[in-house]
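Sample intake sheet
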Amino acid sequence: MSKEVSEVGETAARKDYVDPPPAPMVDTAEVKLWSFYRAIIAEFVATLLFLYITVATVVGYKSQAEPCGGVGLLGVAWAFGGMIFVLVYCTAGISGGHINPAVTFGLFLARKVSLTRAVAYMVAQCLGAVCGVGLVKGFMNSGFNSVGGGANSVATGYNKGTALGAEIIGTFVLVYTVFSATDPKRSARDSHVPVLAPLPIGFAVFMVHLATIPITGTGINPARSFGAAVIYNNQKVWDDQWIFWVGPFVGAMVAAAYHQYILRAAAIKALGSFRSNPTK
């Protein structure tokens, strides 16, 4: 903290990193650019591929007759984490590689993206998720409904409060990792960080899945939960759906506040510093 406070009052020229300016709340200019629509398409396709691979893995695992005949929970977790690693690596330079409305929401709160872009991304992500799960049902129709369609719901033995808490904490881990891995301050001082940024994000998804698959099947991504719910269309899944929106959005909000106002000391910098004014 003392190092952060000592930076107060420094000019941008003396810094070895540059924070991008805050994104405008509503940016009407960007809707006229092809890059805006290219990013939306990238988010749609990436989320479609993410849901196709991961839900197909879940359905395939649950369809196995033998307990050790499939990839197991570890393999399911690897499918989610590995696909995020691959897709963030592929799309980071185009759209930022969000692939998750909760990540988009957290970055919007931190003024990294405009409201216009955030809403467009969320719509594209949800549509991509529906299409991705739709492909899984089309290819694996015989066992899709019998094993729950890879949809998220509160597992037997757990209550909705526990499930909500698991989703909040799991999403906090993910979004906090996103902020840390893409922090321009770290990128300037550790040249390997931009290259490896997708890796810790993928590992965060992997680790959260290991912890929360038994509780909720692991949402931490409203588009993932929504896409599976639309295609599977089960009353229990819809009854629990709010958990997979409220939990991730709350977790993303807390992660954004923690990174921006505690770790990066935005509030302290805005106020000046804790040091007393020598003229008083």
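Comment: Residues 1-13 have pLDDT under 50 and may be disordered. The CA atoms of residues 268 and 274 lie 7 Å apart.
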